From TrEMBL:
Record keywords: Membrane, Phosphate transport, Transmembrane, Transmembrane helix, Transport
Membrane topology note: Multi-pass membrane protein
Segments passing through the bilayer: 40-60, 66-85, 97-122, 145-169, 176-197, 203-224, 236-258, 270-288, 309-327, 355-374, 394-413, 419-435, 465-490
PANTHER family: PHOSPHATE TRANSPORTER (PTHR11101:SF80)
GO MF entry, a single one: phosphate transmembrane transporter activity
Compartments where located: Membrane
Family statement drawn from the similarity comment of this UniProt entry: Belongs to the inorganic phosphate transporter (PiT) (TC 2.A.20) family.
Keyword Zinc: no
Gene Ontology cellular component terms for the protein in this record: membrane
BP terms from Gene Ontology: phosphate ion transmembrane transport
Protein's recorded name: Phosphate transporter
Length: 495
């Protein structure tokens, strides 16, 4: 109670003083209750979402002979979608937030809209029921075995991604699903049922994805350093080169969307996609040149001024990445669920199945709800805790992600969007360390300094680097082991 409040109560009757003290205690209890219950709100909303999904699944499929299994799988699919939204979307929005081109609230809103739109408008039309050939279809042809294998894979992947999100480690949701299918498949049909050649390519992507993303991001940052940042007249250099860079970004994303984001609407060959990207790059570069010239008028000749010129393309790139992510990764959330629904309705498994709209809707809404409820933690970590990002560095990361996916599609390499984006962030961070020490000759790591001080001066936080790499390495085996255990338990239940 303040001094003025104390003076007022001095002249009140005793019973009012007692009442004021009691009201003060109640007010403190209310504040404490709000403080304690606040962390429980997101899990509570998530449980309500999963409950609503269960109700909808019961209305749509409860009358089927195995309707309860579909209801349970739908709830697990919703849980998986929530976790993908919480973990994976940070890769698209983290750099823009870290560069302060977007606020956290703005990033959540844009990502939620674009993820949902991508999933519903261009989401996986058809999905392989055994996760792109990880397990031979004939090995799990028994409907009961197949249903429990898909259920175990879905739940194991969701649990692993949930754990990774809690630990603050961005992992590949695709690899988690693949590991889940592999683990259940091994228990169901033995090691020979697994397509080990495909698994070898996936293991190779653990190295290929981040290295490609990091090298391309570092290459663009080197170009920006050489042509813009370390020029005497930064603004004049920016007027020349920023339109070119924006054109490259537009062309890359046009190619990316043609190849990956619009498969459901139209099928575009690789050569055609490249021509589309080239055309967009030229036209966009010419269109934005006068805009950049107007924006640069009156800007001071310093690096901070360049943020204004890179902010809009960075926001657009984050939105496009979210759209493409929703289109491609929604199948990770609902692919096994769609396979279970197909098996229940048709009485058997199939190589490829259509995803019903209500199943797709579960995945689309789950991605957005999970992002809004649990995404901020990883967005902050990806955007600012691995290394310091500004608009130029974040732009390099976004552009590297699009170009790496295009190159991987051309080479037929299985890559992870998570690994590419995080690899790009590490790439610009390690490049900055090398550039400052080797090119600018700034001795930041003098042997005379204490070890703690030398570590603090590192541009890239080594603790995050080790945590993330470790999580990447154990995702497939951890999801596989968990799925194998879950399948062994579920297979005891008669269908």
């Amino acid at each position: 109670m303040t001094r003025s409040g104390a003076r007022v109560t001095e002249h009140l009757p005793k019973q009012y003083k007692t009442l004021d003290k009691d009201l003060g205690r109640i007010n403190l209890l209310e504040q404490a209750a709000i403080y304690v219950s606040r962390p429980l709100v997101p899990p509570g909303v998530a449980l309500i979402f999963m409950g609503l999904v269960g109700v909808v699944a019961t209305i749509l499929m409860g009358h089927q002979p195995l309707g309860l299994i579909v209801v349970a799988a739908s709830v697990i699919g919703a849980y998986m979608a929530l976790n993908i939204g919480a973990n994976d979307v940070a890769n698209n929005m983290g750099p823009a937030v870290g560069a302060e081109a977007l606020t956290l609230g703005g990033a959540l809103m844009i990502a939620a809209i674009c993820e949902t739109a991508g999933a519903l408008l261009a989401g996986g039309d058809v999905v392989g029921t055994v996760s792109r050939g990880i397990v031979a279809p004939e090995a799990v042809s028994d409907p009961q075995v197949f249903i429990w294998a898909m259920m175990a894979a879905l739940l194991a992947a969701a649990l692993w991604i949930n754990l990774a999100t809690v630990l603050g480690a961005p992992v590949s949701t695709t690899h988690a699903v693949v590991g889940g299918v592999m683990g259940a498949g091994i228990v169901a049909a033995g090691f020979t049922a697994v397509n080990w050649a495909t698994m070898g390519r996936i293991a190779a992507s653990w190295v290929i994805s981040p290295v490609m993303g990091g090298l391309i991001a570092a290459g663009f940052l080197a170009f920006i350093n050489n042509r813009i940042i370390y020029r005497d007249d930064k603004i004049a250099a920016a007027r020349t080169w920023v339109p070119v860079l924006i054109g490259i970004m537009g062309g890359a994303f046009a190619t990316y969307m043609a190849l990956k984001g619009l498969k459901k609407i139209i099928k575009v060959e690789f050569g055609t996609a490249l021509l589309i990207g080239l055309g967009v790059a030229v036209v966009l570069s010419l269109l934005v040149r006068p805009l950049i010239a107007r924006q640069s008028v009156g800007l001071e000749n310093r690096n901070k001024s360049l943020k204004k010129l890179f902010a809009l393309p960075l926001i657009l790139s984050a939105a496009l990445l979210s759209f493409a992510h929703g289109a491609n990764d929604v199948a990770n959330a609902v692919g096994p669920l769609a396979a279970i629904v197909h098996t229940v309705l048709e009485g058997g498994a199939s190589d490829r199945v259509q995803i019903p709209f209500w199943v797709m809707l579960i995945g689309a809404l789950g991605l957005s709800v999970g992002l809004v409820l649990f995404g901020p933690k990883l967005i902050r970590m990806v955007g600012g805790e691995i290394t310091k990002l500004n608009a130029m560095r974040a732009y390099c990361v976004a552009l590297a992600a699009a170009i790496t996916v295009i190159l991987a599609s051309w080479l037929g390499l299985p890559v992870s969007s998570t690994h590419i984006a995080i690899g790009g962030i590490f790439g610009v961070g390690f490049f900055r360390e090398w550039y400052h020490e080797r090119v600018l000759k700034q001795n930041r790591q003098s042997a005379l300094m204490p070890l703690e001080e030398r570590t603090r001066r590192k541009v890239v936080r080594r603790a995050h680097f080790l945590t993330i790499v470790a999580a990447w390495l154990v995702t497939v085996p951890a999801a596989a082991a968990l799925s194998a255990a879950l399948f062994s338990f579920l297979n005891l239940i008669p269908v």
